[in-house]
Amino acid sequence: MSHRARQSVSKGDNQVAEGTTVHATLVPTRVICNVGPMKLRRPTDKLAGCVWLPRFIDKARHHQAGTLHPDFVRPFCHPLATDGLFLAHFELGKDEIIQVIAESNGSDESVAEWFQARAQYTPEKVAAWNELAPNIGKDGYPAHRGFLWILKQYYGGVAPDPRVDSAFTAIAFDEGYLDEVQP
Predict the structure, then answer these.
(1) Pairing mode of beta strands 14-16, 21-23
(2) Which of 45, 74, 99, 135 has fewest C-beta within 10 Å?
(3) Distance between CA 172 and CA 163 in Å, rounded?
């Protein structure tokens, strides 16, 4: 991004004279969501062999308790966000799964049993999801346009780190563990 220096600025040995056009690359640092005390499992954590399910359960429980972080409210179960893609892939109704989670009394195992008992659950379908999900947002995969929108809205159109190329890596960046998944 370029801007006109309005006054002489000194930084170490570098001098920028008034009226000089400065070309700089901004390194975005805004975190999309600092979840703070709201604990969410990582997108790659599995339940019933399925990535995203534990994180979805956590978000649903926060939603039911009224403690879902404001940055998560709009995309929660949105058809174009990861939640919506998850629901569509497994042919799950939003209200249906939220009710099952509400009636689980905090038991992940009862949600897993219900999930696996559904006719739409097959090991092949889970394997296909587990392969697709970490690529959501990448060029050529679902939600790429949405991912570009996120980059524009929150990071000025540039990924905050060159390793951020999908919804999963954006979450890892935002929640502080990108180095663990993309060294």
Answers:
(1) unpaired
(2) 74
(3) 10
Q: Which two tokens stand for residue 66?
A: 């009224």
Q: pTM, whole model, 2 decimals?
A: 0.80
Residue carrying structure tokens 């980059």? 151
Which among 116, 39, 51, 40 has a CA at the least distance from the CA of 82? 51
Angle between helices 94-102 and 108-117 (to 10 degrees): 140
Domain range list for the chain: 46-181
d(CA 11, CA 16): 9
Cβ atoms of 5 and 20 within 8 Å: the answer is: yes
Phi, psi of 92 (to 5 degrees): -100, 140
Q: Write out the two tokens for 5.
A: 């220096």
Helices 53-65 & 108-117, crossing angle to 10 degrees? 120
Residues in the chain, total: 183
Q: CA triplet 39, 180, 167: central angle to 5 degrees?
A: 65
